[in-house]
């Protein structure tokens, strides 16, 4: 974190105008919910599709049908958590795990 | 400042997700609810079309085949929609040519696809006045207006996602959902609007959740393509591979060998006999070719969008093909079928209309509640917030203005001369221009006068509609009653009911917000506060 | 079946309202029901409310039956709430009058 703070101190031209100071947290949260949430929904859905004991096309179809409920749940979670840092951490960790898991399944599936 | 509780955050989320696109969602709900009576509105908007006597599926098919054989013998596809259910009161034929080939000899076929209605008594084309009808209103529901189709699809997804969030957060923040289930306390201003908002939402909650979620599922593959991509890989053909696995569909190839089309009416008679249900559609791929296939569809009393199905080859012999019926496909067809409600008989269709109306009231009461909560404080300020003023003006202009504009669309149908070119476009412009004018009007007029005057305007427009029918066409309410044309009668009665509703609204508004020039305001002291 | 489902659903709603103190006061001013009576009413209401969808599904299949029942339920909830607001006694009279109708109604 200190690297980032020192970078921020050096690049004074990046200093937020008053608009960002007042609404920066909100914009951050909206981005986390909308974009971060979309990313998490998709990666999680792909991973769960691999886990489901169904033929591939059906598993993908089931997860696509359920994806909007998942997206809504993720968005609510993003707004329910108080700390933004925790929000991005959760999104990042869960997405990464899902991507790694999906890749593993994919490689195993191709290998076998 | 202590951190907000879960309920408070969800309350804020509910307000924002509910408010931002509320007027657009109101538009979508109104056009969608009208979509449940699109066929009836079509009938009202083309009154000169002769009501069709009942006809058997075989005779209708024979007529259709004769027409198609005569005019489009070398099309790629014929589609016959039989007059079997409420959704299809007319015999309609569609045809399609391959994109690269048109029948150059006959100038009628310069378009590569087309559709006509056939009169079952003569077999000739049935022509009514050029109009978008109820179908155009319903199409506004998912195509919106004046924007490219793909943009509309994406915007619709955004609005619907906001609606879903508003519904879910609404349930979360509703304290005492069971305790307040039947609570409605009229005459208490803000409390009453909250009660109405809660009541309409909770009473129709299963419908609202279904309609919102299924709305998202319509364009599932456009909204969430990456889930398929994640499993199948990038690229359009990979996505198509996924779609083909779920909805397997064989490509029907042209064999370039002549074989006359068999007697379709006989095949339809056999299908009807086998299913003991009305036959609804006949599809012929590559008519006149030996590789041709005939698909016959029949009615089934189910929420699914597809019913009975039969595939036959070029000689009329059965091919053993079935429609995909895996669990995800059944769920998909079921939930979309529930959204469209085409399966609904008269009683269930009434419930669909009621639920749509409750959804519209839910949005309207939410908007009015938001404004009324803040009005007292805002009006005390020297200059009310621009956001608040925007909401107030949009509320009047949309909640009353949109129904008024739709009424003018119907009025234009009766007023614009039948023979005029482009009359359909004129009718459609009437809706948007009048809505625009009403929004301008509500931007300038004081709020209390605005609501009252627009309600009066709406009531007047809908009262005029049956009168316009009486004056301009032969097929008015009394004609409809005399000839058992229940679709026509239903629409006219609907207009009368709308007039009554808006008159009641205008009277209530007059009680609460005394209008300038009104003789004796009811409650002098309290009303002065309200009109501040 | 539609009329029977409608009657059962509406009776269930009225019974549920009677079991709630605030609405009971509107319908029967001055009468207070004790816990046992409230529970009894809730049980009766639950029976009616569960038999309605079962009848609907038997008549029209799961999809259409449930859709019908939920539609009827939204109508009934709105009607009951509006009745309680303006004419609470009418809902009681309606309950009493509709009970014998149940035996007669065929469709």
Ends apart, CA distance between termini of chain A? 43 Å
| Radius of gyration from the alpha-carbon trace of chain A, in angstroms | 18 Å
Q: Which runs of chain C of at least 5 residues are low in confidence (pLDDT < 50)?
A: none
Shape of chain A: elongated
Largest sheet of chain C: none
The class by helix and strand makeup of chain C works out as: mainly alpha
Number of strands of chain C: 0
Strand-and-helix sequence of chain C, N→C?
Answer: HHHHH
Biggest sheet record of chain A: none
| Secondary structure: helix percent of chain A | over 70%
How many helix segments of chain C?
5
Provide the β-strand percentage band of chain A.
Answer: under 5%
- The stretches of 5 or more residues of chain A where confidence is low (pLDDT under 50) are none
- End-to-end separation of chain C in angstroms reads 5 Å
Helix tally of chain A? 4
Average pLDDT metric of chain C: 89
How many domain modules of chain C? 1
Q: Into how many domains do the coordinates of chain A divide?
A: 1
Q: What attributes characterize this protein structure?
A:
A: about 110 residues, mainly alpha, 4 helices, about 85% helix, B: alpha+beta, 7-stranded antiparallel sheet, disordered C terminus
Please write out the topology.
The complex is a heterotrimer of chains A (112), B (532) and C (107).
Chain A: H1 2-10, H2 18-51, H3 56-80, H4 84-111
Helix pairs in contact in A: 2-3, 2-4
Chain B: H1 6-20, H2 22-35, H3 38-45, H4 57-71, E1 77-81, E2 91-96, E3 113-118, H5 133-143, H6 149-173, H7 190-203, H8 205-218, H9 220-223, H10 225-232, H11 236-246, H12 264-275, E4 279-285, E5 293-298, E6 308-312, E7 318-319, H13 327-340, H14 346-380, H15 386-415, H16 423-444, H17 447-472, H18 477-482, H19 486-512, H20 524-530
Antiparallel strand pairs in B: 1-2, 1-4, 2-3, 4-5, 5-6, 6-7
Helix pairs in contact in B: 1-6, 2-5, 2-14, 2-15, 3-5, 3-19, 4-12, 6-8, 7-14, 8-13, 10-11, 14-15, 15-16, 15-17, 17-19
Chain C: H1 2-19, H2 21-27, H3 35-60, H4 62-86, H5 88-104
Could you describe the 3D structure shown?
- The complex is a heterotrimer of chains A (112), B (532) and C (107).
- Chain A has 112 residues and is mainly alpha-helical.
- Chain A has one domain (24-111).
- Helices cover 86% and strands 0% of the residues of chain A.
- In chain A, helix 2 (18-51) runs antiparallel to helix 3.
- With 532 residues, chain B is α+β, with helices and mostly antiparallel strands.
- Chain B has two domains: 6-46 and 137-214 and 346-530, no CATH class; 57-127 and 249-323, no CATH class.
- In chain B, 60% of the residues lie in helices and 7% in strands.
- Chain B has a seven-stranded antiparallel sheet.
- The two termini of chain B are 34 Å apart.
- The model of chain B is unreliable at 103-109 and 523-532 (pLDDT under 50).
- By secondary structure, chain C is mostly helical.
- Chain C is 87% helix and 0% strand.
- Chain C starts with a helix and ends with a helix.
- The chains are: A mainly alpha (112), B alpha+beta (532), C mainly alpha (107).
- At the A-B interface, helix 2 and helix 3 of A face helix 1, helix 6, helix 8, helix 9 and helix 10 of B.
